[in-house]
Design a protein that fits this description.
This protein is of the alpha+beta class. The chain has one domain: Trna Endonuclease, Chain: A, domain 1 (3-Layer(aba) Sandwich). Helices cover 31% and strands 33% of the residues. The strands form 2 sheets. A 4-stranded mixed sheet has the order 3-4-5-6. The longest helix has 16 residues. The N and C termini lie far apart (59 Å).
Length: 135
């Protein structure tokens, strides 16, 4: 006999079935990063990957060596074209060098299509800025 689904069942699906996320939660399995990156904590900050945390450590060592005066993480770059806001790009590190120059560092493992477009747009909009990618 046909029974129409309730509102909750229409939203969540059949009541006797659970989603893969619900199953993983019930059985204690963590959701993996789709690029197999392992989140890392360094100096009380969470980084998206071990490579990014290592880069932060290296920047701290460069401060001690006198090459870098300071650095910021997850610096927001607004991508605006002809007065229209297109997107925000959060670059991994904005690095203030001891000589007064500024570098923008991106630490990448896997290059996605969205990243490639935002990277090219940011470089085209700000050609005077020094963008560096670390792979």
């Amino acid at each position: 006999m046909f029974r129409p689904y309730s509102k909750d069942e229409q939203i969540r699906g059949r009541p006797d079935k659970m989603t893969s996320d619900e199953f993983k939660f019930q059985h204690g399995k963590k959701k993996k990063n789709k690029y197999n990156a392992v989140r890392q904590t360094y100096n009380n900050y969470n980084y998206d990957s071990k490579r990014e945390a290592r880069h932060a450590y290296e920047l701290d060592m460069r401060i001690k060596a006198g090459e870098v005066s300071k650095w910021e993480r997850q610096h927001k770059i607004s991508i605006d074209v002809m007065g229209v806001h297109i997107a925000n790009y959060f670059i991994d590190f904005k690095v203030y060098m001891s000589d007064g120059s500024i570098e923008y560092h991106e630490v990448k493992g896997a290059v996605t299509g969205v990243f490639a477009i935002k990277w090219k747009l940011a470089k085209a909009i700000h050609p005077e800025w020094n963008f560096i990618i670390f792979k």
